[in-house]
């Protein structure tokens, strides 16, 4: 896929048209082939872009303006409908190419399985990689209904790849008993229910390390984000997730990429989910993209 052609569809607010000089690249992964409850997250990337038009370009949280960051919206990866294995392979090749050009990748999902090939590509470039995973669900299953390629399995796959001790999960409030037992026995770091407060303890220990951050929108309580496939009561507020993004921005980690997944617009006629997601992407652009 060529990156040097401006995306002709909807773009994230203030996206530039110069790929070569962009520090960050926004791209969509319109895949929901393996979801276990409600489909529709393949429509998330474009709805996030549409909602971004209502944003202010200035962030009082970061005290920065979007004009201060060079970024390019490359549109959605054209994934083969219904074919999970081929889709994951195409995502891997796409990210591998972006990283070879020293771009900061910001992915819009799509179901959470899309994070798995991203990490495979990022880990190849950064063998000391750590993962910050912000989510309602553990996503530590080895399979779901006999299917190893499932949106309930990516974090388990990542633990096996980069080492469970390098995986930090926050906000977790749902999963099988076996998933919580694996987290306890494997050496991974799981923090249930909350995000910002445990992050304050963990971030200093990751200083200087390359870190990838994946955010599932369902970490928010359904009151703040009803537009998702597997909503889970008891979540955090939009304010707390904004605080967490700010904490990461002010840390000494080397954030090397990020994604935000599982926005499913059909279940939220108010569009509050997409509106919140677009604001989180703005804060990620302003806080995590350096240089």
Automatic annotation (TrEMBL):
Listed cofactors: Mn(2+)
Protein family: Belongs to the arginase family. Agmatinase subfamily.
Gene: speB
Record's function text: Catalyzes the formation of putrescine from agmatine.
Cofactor note: Binds 2 manganese ions per subunit.
Domain of life: Bacteria
Top EC class for this record: hydrolase
Pfam families: Arginase
Gene3D superfamilies: Ureohydrolase domain
Keywords recorded for this protein, A-Z: Hydrolase, Manganese, Metal-binding, Polyamine biosynthesis, Putrescine biosynthesis, Spermidine biosynthesis
Residues reported in the UniProt entry to bind Mn(2+): 112, 135, 137, 139, 216, 218
Reactions the enzyme catalyzes: agmatine + H2O = urea + putrescine
GO BP, sorted A to Z: putrescine biosynthetic process from arginine, via agmatine; spermidine biosynthetic process
An example Gene Ontology molecular-function term: metal ion binding
The protein's name: Agmatinase
EC number: 3.5.3.11
Organismal lineage: Bacteria, Bacillati, Bacillota, Bacilli, Bacillales
Metabolic or biological pathway: Amine and polyamine biosynthesis; putrescine biosynthesis via agmatine pathway; putrescine from agmatine: step 1/1
